[in-house]
Structures are given as C-alpha cells and as structure tokens.
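Quick start: load a record and inspect it. Here is Glycosyltransferase family 4 protein:
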Amino acid sequence: MLPGAGKRVAFYAPMKPPHHPVPSGDREIARNLMALLSASGADVQLVSDLRIYDKHGDAALQAIQRNAARDEAAQLIRDMPAADLWVTYHNYYKAPDLIGPAVARARGIPYVQIESTRAKKRLTGPWAGFAEAAHAAADAAAAIFYFTGQDRFALERDRCGSQTVAPLPPFLPLEELPAASSLAGPMLTAGMMRAGDKLASYRIIAETLAYLPEDWRLDIAGDGPARSEVEALMAPFGSRVRFLGQLSREELSAAYSNSSLFLWPGVNEAFGMVYLEAQAHGLPIAAQDRPGVRDVLLARSYPEPEDGAEALAAFTAALLANPALRSRIGREGRDYIARNHLAPAAARRFWDVAAPLMETQT
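Running the structure step on this input writes:
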C-alpha cells in the first residue's frame, strides 16, 4: 500500500501558489510537493491561492494581507472539505502563513510545514509584524521539514515544545532517472534573469568565461526582466553564447541531454532545483562552494566564492578538457541523485513523520 493512501491533505503555499504564472523555484517546488503527496496515495487539495507576500516591508500592505487572510481562514474553517493533515510550504518573514494554524486548530487536524525559516533579526524593522507571524506559525507546527543544513540550526534552536524537526532533502518528482546526457554539447546555464542574486550569478559567469580558453560554447536557458543586462554581459563573447529563452520542462530536459556540463555559481541559492536536474542527467556541475548549494551537489571540492571567477574558470576548464573525468563525475552524480533526491525516498521520509501525527489526532 502507498504510504499516503487514503489520507486527505490540505496544501497551501503563501508566497506563491503552484499555479502562479511566473516560473520560479518556489513555484516548481510547490508543484513537486503536491505531486509527491498525490503519487504516494494522498488526496491533495490546494485549499487556498491567497498570496501573502511583502517584498519591501510595507506596513500598509501587511495590514491589507492580514485582513484578507483573516477572511480566508474564516471561509476555510466553514467550507473547506474534510482533511486529515494541513501542509504549508515556505513560511518565512516575507510570506508568513497567516491561515494554516487557525484552520488546522479549528478543524482539529495536524499542521506541518515544509521549508520554514526562523529569522530573529527580522523581529525588528519593517517586517517585524510578519516575522512575528511567521514565528508563531512555526511554533504551531507539529513538525517542520527542512531542505538543507543551513535551515536546520535555527529551526532546532527555536524548536517549540515537542515539535519534530526533520530533514526532507530536495527531490525531483521522478520515480527513476532520465536518460543520461551525451556530454558532448556546449556548456549549459539555466536561471531566471532578474535583478539581485540571479543577476549576480550571471555576472560571475561572464567573468568566468573571460578566463576560459577560447574553445568553448555556452547555452543559456531562461528569461526575465533582466535579460537585456544578461545579454550585455555576454555580448563580448559573440556567437559562443546562445540564448535559448524560457524552455518548457521537455525542452529543458533536451538541453540537459545535449550539454557537456552545467555552469551556475549559485549566489544565495537556497539550494537550486537546476542542480538536481542537471546531475540526474549526468552533467558534472561547475558551481561555487556555497551554503545550500553544497547540500544538493555530489561531494567534491568546489571553488570557494572568495577565490572569484578565476578559480571557477580553472575548475570549469579542467572539466571541459577531460571527457573521461566528465563521464565519471556524471555517473557518480546520477547515482547520488538516485539514492538521495528522487520522489520515492522523499515520500518515505515525509510519511514516516506525518503519519504518526495523524494517528495521535484520532
């Protein structure tokens, strides 16, 4: 029997609902979580698409969203179909769960969170109210699942009562690995083109390319409001850089399958789904040794961020120059993903914690 068979799960993602039109890692993870729970036998309902998100620390916006959440919670308490478990994905100071704790308490069902962040330094300043709400929601959770080691420390430090804090390593929504890459094509980069951390990674890539021997090619998958800035960064390299635009899942899979390696520094990535996807296709990764990123990469010695683009270029050049090395690392990466980051392992980890919580409610 599937581990979630017969269970009814109410699912909510305050920062970005799974059907949001703008692609992002958050949207992809929310979709993957719903698919994971459904594939393990549960009846999963997206019970609300109310977006609670304050990017800039706007007190007026926070008040509006609190009122909307209060109304939404009242409606769900009254009308939500029967559920055995409430699951909230990504509760943090910019996007607190203002709905789940109240509804779960009123309905008498366990409340759990996946990827919750506790940030005490945000309890003062423009997000203070939302940060307090995020902490209160975390306190209400019977269990909190974390994706990476960097989240674990604060969650365990601020653990509430007998709350369970458990690992749920990032996963691909696959039962088995996709076909392996030929490792014979250009390098591949895939990332949203927007200001901030993503653009910072693209800047490092441009600096890295300038240090590489000239016999290389790079395909870039992605689009976004900062595309013109990314194009300007890559302009000095001419036709050696090709822009693929925003790709469908199938098109991106084809790009992985026809690439030699995956290049993405990973500036402030929580972990990066693209690293899992690339390794599942057998691509060696050229990245920097950063928190979060290292949690999803095959264990190797990666260049330190403080060593700059020159070190990342040397690391990348060594891979480009040695097909046998790329092949060996690619095989090891596929084995690593199969053991740790596919759906069956993730489902077992989730239900091993969640199922006993439901038993105690009956």
